[in-house]
Amino acid sequence: MINRSIKAIIFDLGNVVIDFDHTIAARKICGLNGKTTQEVYRLFFDSGLTALFEEGKVTPGDFFREVKKLLSLKIDYASFLPIWNEIFFLTERNRQVYNLAKNLKGSYRIALLSNINILHYNYLKNNFSIFDVFEYIMLSFELGRRKPHPLIYQKTLEMIGVEAKEVFYTDDRPELIASAKELGLAGTVFTGIASLKKNLLSIGVQVN
Fold it and tell me: What element of type H or E holds 113?
């Protein structure tokens, strides 16, 4: 029996619709400043600076200038962009998620909710055909908050025009699913297409 109470299905982007690996960039940076991959990752990707960039509170230019100081880099902006952006790749698992979203479109409101910065988003738009299936695209740098802050989920529900109980959400990070469930959204941690379909079927969402 189809569950008519579910009106929207929200997908995370990274490691769900497209895969990425920050260490690709970290290794390239290591070759420029002599630091280890672990040092670069800790200083850079786990930093408050990157968090602010993903919330749209730092411009790309200011982000680059701070990165240069933080990592002792002697490169220009044009050289930095491919290092920063070329960390994404499509897998068969990603293609299966895309096809699932495409099949669900029409019966449900299909949305994307991502912690992402403007440079990564523009790069993905220009290089990967993955966004056309989503009717609603909610991005942290546009909304001013990152998951798991409650406000980003609340803004997402408002934009889609649904209540929390009418949503199913999948994300590869357990803590983000947990925070969404606290607000009343149904959800599951994404581990693969088979388990995702099983969880959707368990709540009455028909999948092919």
Answer: strand 109-114
